[in-house]
Amino acid sequence: MAHDKQGRPLVAVTGIGVVTSIGQGKDDTWAALTAGKSGIHRINRFPVDGLRTTIAGTIDNVQVDPFCAPMLSERLAVLAAEEAVGQSGLATADFPGALFIAVPPVEMEWPQREALAKASGQQGDVTYADVLKAASEGRFKAWHDLFIFGTVADRVADKFGTKGSPISLSTACSSGATAIQLGVEAIRRGETDAALCIGTDGSVNPESLIRFSLLSALSTQNDNPDAASKPFSKNRDGFVMGEGGAALVLENAESAKARGATILGYVLGCGEKGDGFHRTRSSPDGAPGIAAIRDALSDAGLSPDDIGYINAHGTSTPENDKMEAMSCTAVFGERMASLPISSNKSMIGHTLTAAGAVEAVMSLLTIATGRIPPTINYNVPDPAIPLDVVPNVARDASVNYVLSNSFGFGGQNTCLVFGAEPK
After folding, report:
1. 167-169 vs 98-102, strand pairing mode
2. In what residue span(s) does the Ketosynthase family 3 (KS3) domain sit (predicted)?
3. Which end of the chain is more exposed for a tag (fewer CB within 10 A), N or C?
């Protein structure tokens, strides 16, 4: 079968790649994830004195110069894409399709700002005009290019030879899932037979930590880093930042089969709903999250009973976990008491812009291996969230269809349905 029930081309996954704080590559990451290993640790990349949160799931074995979010995000994207494109069997330098890449918001970071201020030559207070004047000098052109939003996409596109203009996007914590959704839609419309979809984020830096701390979003349980992220637990107190990159090669299933590609699974459904309730908080009634889940199932041609596992957004914040549990219960009803749902963020932290793509890879590996990763640190159940969170230990199970949730700041809600085969 090459088309779904709506007559659209089926979208197959022929390559996946991932790098996280617990492993470089899908094999290492999956082994660590299913073993319940945490990659969250005390930050040693920069001084953390005076910060409320001093832990994160940073990727410390990948070095870039200059060390900043755009450069690290680019490198993580390249590592993940090399693995995914290599597995797909498509040309690694002449990719026959479009690039959709989720990247973190970009702005000049403190080391560069300080260098520009010093270079301005001004004594005492340095104005923004002074910094702009210094930046206009030729020796700072590389910094100017580096801190433009589309630069990461342009460089990745050049490396892999993708076709057309690369699409950069940033829809908060749902960005990685949105990149996949855009690839799916492009293939369904017949605009391309292949898409390279990436989510990447290397933005653990002092300014990010301070900003999230000001929102009271981060865990402050610094004394025991690997136990700080505890989704769905009663004693959860916020998310832990993480870094990561993930890539999926999507193809028109008919084209993939014609060239003899190995199909790893299918992206069967996408659901997206905006939530204008608040700039950071989710609507208390969960309506947009509920709608996104239902739309993803409808798009996939599935019923709630078909889903065998939910890869949760599961950030470990008090409000988000409650909202997600409520949204899932509204759709799946009494099944939520026994339907497995777990959060990868308990081990790798919240990889922000990359999260939807990282968790898509884990969803596909769940289908492929018949193994559900656990939610670690689940030692104090929340009676208000009576879910089967696959506590602390991975579980063997035959899973044909997975729902992967991504709920972001600013009301960005994107849900994806993956399957071993279309129904």
Report:
1. parallel
2. 8-420
3. N
> Are residues 349 and 314 located together in one domain of the fold?
yes
Residues 283, 230, 345: CA angle, nearest 5 degrees: 75
Domain boundary at 146, 174, 208, which?
146
Active-site annotation holds for 313: yes
CATH code assigned at 281: 3.40.47.10
144: pLDDT confidence band, cut at 50, 70 and 90?
low
Residues 176 and 235 in one domain: yes
Render pLDDT for 244-262 as a digit per residue (tens, 0 to 9).
Answer: 999 999 999 999 999 999 9
Question: Which of 198, 244, 334 has its CA nearest to residue 40?
Answer: 244
Cα–Cα distance measured from residue 85 to residue 289, given in angstroms and rounded to the nearest whole number: 32
**Domain extent at residue 119:** 110-146
DSSP letters for 99-114: EEEE-------HHHHH
Q: Of residues 173, 197, 270, 415, which has the active-site annotation?
A: 173
The catalytic residue among 197, 313, 328, 415 is 313
Residue 81 lies in a domain: yes
Question: Closest Cα partner for 347 from 314, 307, 298, 396?
Answer: 314
- For the entire predicted model, the pTM comes to 0.94
Per-residue pLDDT of 64-117, as tens digits, reads 988 889 999 999 999 999 999 999 999 999 999 999 999 998 776 677 767 766
* pLDDT of 121 higher than 70: no
Residue of 197, 270, 350, 415 marked catalytic? 350
Contacts of 396 (CB under 8 A, 6+ apart): 370, 371, 372
Asked if 122 and 198 sit in the same domain, the reply is: no
Please report, as a single letter, which amino acid is at residue 381.
Answer: P
Task: Please indicate whether residue 3 is annotated as part of the active site.
Answer: no
Query: Mean pLDDT for the chain?
Result: 92
